[in-house]
Amino acid sequence: MIWKRSAVLRFYSVCGLLLQAAASKNKAKGSQGQFPLTQNVTVVEGGTAILTCRVDQNDNTSLQWSNPAQQTLYFDDKKALRDNRIELVRASWHELSISVSDVSLSDEGQYTCSLFTMPVKTSKAYLTVLGVPEKPQISGFSSPVMEGDLMQLTCKTSGSKPAADIRWFKNDKEIKDVKYLKEEDANRKTFTVSSTLDFRVDRSDDGVAIVCRVDHESLNATPQVAMQVLEIHYTPSVKIIPSTPFPQEGQSLILTCESKGKPLPEPVLWTKDGGELPDPDRMVVSGRELNILFLNKTDNGTYRCEATNTIGQSSAEYVLIVHDPNALAGQPGPDHALIGGIVAVVVFVTLCSIFLLGRYLARHKGTYLTNEAKGAEDAPDADTAIINAEGSQVNAEEKKEYFI
User: How many of the other CB atoms lie within 10 Å of CB of 371?
Assistant: First the structure.
């Protein structure tokens, strides 16, 4: 009996082992039929990268992340590499996700997720680290710049990966004709990019903002900029503005000398006919204004305003003619009688022309009618033709035409 019981136990043990082996084999086949799924990741230098590995069906089979140097980072939920930047995000039979914070350029490379079936299945995920370009700097400007000088500005930025793009703007309008240079940095991972802008300045460039803009995918659509405001020195431009267009005797006249230049010319110099102002008591200079009191005919002449700065000198002239107020008030208006006479003559000439034209046309019509009478071909004129036609034509009465 004991022997029989022992045989039965052995039989059940063998059956259990066979069933367990079959189950293990089926589990292995379920895992062996798939590969882990990963995705490439792009992150900005200094940011955090999330590496995720997933399997749709997994029967207690382990997942593992390893770095480009084939060092194991995590085996299931167990951390294998001592790096405080690497943390576990999620660990299950279907997923293993880890994070890498404060990513540096040296972290870039190919990471591997392994599914420990027989044989082991792997999937690769490439971590791309973007190098952020440094804030650009503009060089080559020395203040001030003289009008007409050739200016060369250079904008430079380092540390970009891939190489950044540099664009120039002048008062928000892009400048296309520039030079571009790209150099690899010493770490052989990032780039230094520079761009040079050449242009000749004039007075309209004074106060203009020149902007260098750096575009890069790591900047999240917010470009970095550097700005340089131009300071251009130029000779003055001068214009004289009178207070009234018709100066009259007894009135006052203010001549304003409007001058623009950089540096600003101050003060201005007033002269008359090439010499000093003849009557300082009536001709008062205040800043840029010349005030002439109680105008008279002796004030007629050419007044000159001269402005000078450190760059050069310029001037403008104004010819003063003092008008007699009585003459201006007594100036006759349009001569309506003369205009009426001219109109009458024109009408008379028009009527005469119409009368003569009608007479001319009537005479030619008579000639045509008399030529229809027989024997009238040789008549010297229309009247003779009518007379000749009376005796030789029975129905001549129908063709007669008389002239006054």
Answer: 14
